[in-house]
Amino acid sequence: MTSDGVVVDEAVRAAWDSYRILETRTPEKERQQAQQRVQVAMDAYGREEVSRGAVFLVGVLTAHIIGRQDGLEEDRLDPLSDLIPAVIRKLPGFELADPAQVPMVTGVLMAAAMGMDTVAWRDQFGTIPPKEALVHNFVLWLLADLFDSLVEQPGATDQLMRETFNSMAADAG
Question: What is the pTM (predicted TM-score) of this model?
Answer without folding.
Answer: 0.88
